[in-house]
Amino acid sequence: MELNHIQRVYFVGIGGIGMSAIARYFAKRGCVVCGYDKTRTNLTVALEQEGILVSYLDDAAVLPVCFLANNSDTLIVYTPAIPKNSEILNYFKDNGFILKKRSEVLGIISKGQFCIAVAGTHGKTTTSSIVAHVLIDSGYGCTAFLGGIASNYNSNFIIGNNNVVVVEADEYDRSFLTLHPDLAVITSMDADHLDIYGDAAHLHESFGLFAKQLKPQGTLFVRKGLPLTAGLSYSVGQDSQIKGQNIRVEGSKFVFDYVDTDLRISDIQLMLPGKHNVENAVAAIAVALKLGIDHHKIKAAIASFTGVKRRFEYIVNTPDHIYIDDYAHHPEELRACFDAVRQLYPDKKLTVIFQPHLFTRTRDFAAEFAKVLSTVDELLLLEIYPARELPLPGINSQFLLDKMSLKSKRICGKDLVIEEIKNTKPELLLTVGAGDIDTLIQPLKAILRDV
Fold first, then answer.
1. Coarse DSSP helix, strand, coil percentages of the chain, rounded to the nearest 5 percent
2. Which of this chain's residues are annotated to bind ATP (predicted)?
3. How far apart are CA 219 and CA 287, in angstroms?
4. SS3 for 241?
5. Hey, is 11 helix, strand or coil?
6. What pLDDT, in 10s, does the model give residues 302-354?
7. 143-150 and 155-158 strand pairing
């Protein structure tokens, strides 16, 4: 399907972070854009305020008239997270509409453009957001489809005036194999989505295929230590071709030097904490330098990047209380997040509220989750957020809690969590998870702000 032929687009699962970015893109192009999602969220409300019609009923009877008939210029975009028995999704299937996954649509959009794709089981949202910000802040420009809300732009979609497009390349369901980038970054390949891949070997195989999707004369940047033979290696503290060195904390900022075979950029300031974020910034700098952007402009852009919503986002930051929210939902992400908190606040008691995401992920990584969660000082564990999955026998939060060596731990519902925080008012609070734990943010913020 050719991009210029598309006049009407319906999104089944429009509230997803990646789906909503593409919805905004087509709305900017002047297309008729509508969609369905099961839950009203801040993101779907924002889409409605931008003029996009969103329905919360999975009922074909409420579809807009212009989407009832199958026309060649109508595109239906769906997410694999939508249940197979969705009435709206099956209406479109049964009536022969053109259906595409989000990743396939990104492939259509980026076809014929200069594509910069960032892949990885962790770090891709932050890295792609930094890349996009550096390109925009430096005046180079780009259009960007991001997997999070970039704080500088309060959006997951940024429209530019040139032919450069920055995309987050999602490994779930092998989605990134629809892309053919000119520049690509692979940040990590830790085992995840084993419900799709079965084992780590098949996940690695898909990343290897993605690396081969590069256009002729394209450049691949790969984090040092990943099982890939192609690409320029980057890292923090390792013997790689591109590296971050001399890392230190100055106030609330991380400061580092960028070094490659031709250039050193000294004393780069980064508002995002943690060595993992320095590594993400190093990859973004390498991409920007490959595009020929002046290193002084890159340094200034990195310093002005304020982060991504739900990626180590400060909700409360006062002398008495610090509350940080993060999207971490894999053991390695939790480890990186906790390490960053400890580096910044080594003397404070760390209270964590964690919501496991998916029954299969909880089952597959139970030992790893238990180990990293046992490193905090106090844990309040919510029940597992199922997302697209049905329950698995014996796999629940109690199953996970029983594996932890931590003494100060318990399972709480959301209401009990709020009461607990009201009563204890912890000095350092961290909420982590990828489900609907973000609905706790405002109530917890109000409690700690009103102290």
1. 35, 25, 35
2. 120-126
3. 9
4. coil
5. strand
6. 999 999 988 889 999 999 999 999 989 889 889 989 998 998 899 999 999 99
7. antiparallel
Overall fold of domain 112-304: UDP-N-acetylmuramoyl-L-alanine:D-glutamate ligase (3.40.1190)
Residue 296 buriedness (CB in 10 A; 0-12 / 13-18 / 19+): exposed
41 is in an annotated binding site: no
- Mean pLDDT of the 373-396 span: 93
Amino acid found at 322: I
In the chain, domain spans: 3-101, 112-304, 313-449
Does the annotation list 124 as a binding residue? yes
**126 carries a ligand binding annotation:** yes
Tell me yes or no: is domain 313-449 CATH 3.90.190.20. yes
Residue 347 structure tokens: 């003397």
What's the CA gap between 128 and 157, in Å, rounded? Answer: 12
pLDDT digits (tens, 9 = 90+) for 243-282: 999 999 888 789 999 999 999 999 999 999 889 899 999 9
Contact 157, 136 (CB under 8 A): no
Q: What tokens appear for 249 in the block?
A: 């904390």
The reply, when asked if residue 187 is annotated as ligand binding, is no
Residue 180: closest CA among 196, 191, 169, 195: 169
Is 349 part of any known ligand binding site? Answer: no
**Burial track 14-36 (b if 16+ CB lie within 10 A, e otherwise):** bbbbbbbbbbbbbbeeebbbbbb
In the numeric block, the tokens 């250039």 are attached to 263
The strand order across the sheet containing 232-236 reads: 155-158, 143-150, 164-169, 114-119, 183-186, 219-223, 232-236, 242-250, 253-259, 264-270
Hey, which bits of 293-406 come out as E strands?
A: 313-317, 322-326, 350-355, 378-381
The SS3 assignment for 166 reads strand
What amino acid occupies position 136? Answer: I
Distance CA 152, CA 416 (A): 34
> Is 125 within any annotated ligand binding site?
yes
Q: List Cβ neighbours of 75 (8 Å cut-off, separation of 6 or more).
A: 1, 6, 8, 9, 10, 98, 100, 105
